[in-house]
Amino acid sequence: MEIKKESCRNCKIKSSVVAILSHEELEVLEKGCLQTEFSKGELIFKEGSPANHIVYIREGFVKLSKKGIGGKDYILSISKKGAYLGINNLNKKTKQFYISATALTPTKVCFIDIDKFSALLSKNCQFASEVISYIFEDEMNYYDRLVNNVQQQVPGRLASTLFYFRNNVYGENPFNLNITKVELAALIGTSRESVTRLLKEFQDEKIIKMDKSFIHIIDEAKLEQIRQKG
Length: 230
Description:
Elements lengths: L1 E3 L18 H9 L1 E6 L4 E3 L7 E7 L1 E7 L5 E8 L3 E2 L14 E4 L3 E7 H10 L1 H27 L2 H17 L4 E2 L4 H8 L3 H13 L3 E4 L2 E4 L2 H10 L1
Antiparallel strand pairs: 1-2, 2-9, 3-8, 4-7, 4-9, 5-6, 5-8, 10-12, 11-12
């Protein structure tokens, strides 16, 4: 982990949420902001640890996970550049991080003091509206994936997840998955063996092409049929 300091006012990768803040408001934010770099595999914050900051991803991909029964990790989602983590901690009743966040790639983040972030929400209605819109969109994406995981069989879940990676996480095709088959299995709620078998079937049927961790969706129509069939 490497700690750096850079002016929020001069930052060239502000989020759309923060970009609407005035020069003076950015100064307030800057006083409570610390930029940090994490290596692949490093823990950014841990479930149950004190929640004193909002975390903004400046660069990289981050795995969000939560402990389930028996201490097993369940992957909730993959977040990327522009995402805010820990916004639920703006609720004053929440004193701890509800989930864990781990860097999947070399990652740069900003730790923003939760009290300063909250103060700006109280003073700037447009800023508060943008934050609410962000939370709403993030929750809708999560709910969609949750419903798919409940209603679909494993092939449909895997198809949905491949589209999720292409459209929502990486925004490109082919894409570098950045997670292991064990983690992919945890994301869709199945075993590593099932994921390995299905990926091979998709590849044999020329629906996808795999090269190590890179996946290329070749036959989108067939993959969509699998997703719709569930």
